[in-house]
Specification:
The chain is built from 8 helices and 18 strands. It has about 325 residues and is of the alpha/beta class. Keywords: Iron, Iron-sulfur, Metal-binding.
């Protein structure tokens, strides 16, 4: 049995005790603490933390969840980490987010489906239980594919709309994908939709310095919710979003970004398309459009949401430039069938 100190980003420290061969995530859950996680199998990377001291055993995870480079720097997946001594672990979330609560299914009605492009659609759900759901901009829920036992994860693309008690999400359409097929061929307004959550440590923190947002494809969704939240207040610091997609047909919600830029002081954005066949003026990847002024020699908070190759490319870019940002929050996602 070993003692583990969990240091949260709001300065709170909680102590847990692990049983023999028990993972840190399981011991935390037993103690009433939910370290953000989704898969429990070392596959998603959601429970990634940093071990400041102590020894541990950790295997059974995949490279997409934790790279060898990250493991060498002391990053751990708490769903696979079994302490072999007392440890100190830094959790990249606030203690309030990690207080364990009973996760109840949320039953809602599908109120709107919008085909935004050849590859992307949005859907909106509403209802009394949606109104009672509390989430932070950037978090996600698991959504059950109707008439199946399968669930898919989607980030909120809006804050709660009090006028019609609704929230919205973005979906990348995947050929023969379960949710894609349902939404494009079977879904009707008024259908019952079940959500579970919210989950995730990828959410907007207090803005205390410049912010750089990097979105890949439907990874734009959490940033739309973040910008909506920022619009409700204000920011004295510059916020820049770089939105990258693969093909012209993947571009969505440029009008929303323009609208945010017109009402949020200090907010700017740029858009790029990777395909060489694109007619968009800015071609290439998001890293091609990161400027020194966005990074401010590391005095910047970076938020990144995109597919695993994009996350790794940005990590490599930062290392090549020798930039260590004040904070770096990211979420990897991969399209699921």
């Amino acid at each position: 049995m070993y003692k583990v100190a969990l240091n949260f980003e709001d300065g709170v420290t909680r102590f847990i005790t692990t049983l023999p061969m028990e993972t840190v995530a399981d011991a935390a859950y037993r103690s009433g603490i939910n370290i953000p996680l989704d898969c429990r199998d070392g596959a998603c990377g959601t429970c990634k933390c940093h071990c400041e001291s102590g020894s541990y055993e950790m295997d059974g995870y995949i490279e997409d969840a934790l790279s060898d480079q990250e493991a060498g720097r002391g990053f751990v997946l708490t769903c696979q980490m079994i302490p072999e001594s007392d440890c100190v672990v830094t959790v990249p979330a606030s203690s309030e987010v990690c207080i364990r609560s009973q996760q109840a299914d949320i039953h809602a009605k599908l109120t709107e489906i919008n085909r935004l492009s050849e590859s992307t659609l949005s859907f909106t759900v509403a209802g009394d239980q949606v109104r009672a759901m509390h989430f932070l901009p950037g978090q996600y829920v698991n959504v059950q594919v109707p008439a199946t036992d399968q669930w898919r994860a989607y980030s909120f693309s809006s804050m709660f709309n009090r006028a019609d008690e609704s929230v919205s999400f973005l979906i990348r359409l995947v050929p023969e994908g379960l949710m894609s097929t349902y939404m494009t061929e079977k879904a009707r307004e008024g259908d019952n939709i079940t959500l579970r959550g919210p989950f995730g440590s990828f959410y907007l923190r207090d803005i205390r310095r410049a912010v750089l947002m990097l979105a890949g494809g439907t990874g734009l969704a959490p940033f739309l919710a973040m910008l909506e939240k920022i619009q409700q207040g204000s920011s004295a610091h510059p916020i820049h979003l770089i939105y990258g997609v693969t093909h012209d047909a993947d571009l969505v919600y440029l009008d929303k970004l323009e609208s945010f830029a017109s009402v949020i002081d200090n907010f700017t954005f740029s858009v790029c398309v990777a395909s060489e066949n694109s007619s968009w003026p800015q071609k290439g990847y998001v890293t091609n459009y990161i400027e020194p002024g966005h990074l401010r020699d590391g005095d910047v908070d970076i938020y990144l949401c995109g597919p695993p190759p994009m996350v790794e490319a940005v990590n490599s870019y930062m290392q090549e430039k020798g930039i260590q940002p004040a904070s770096f929050h990211y979420e990897k996602f991969a399209a699921s069938k």
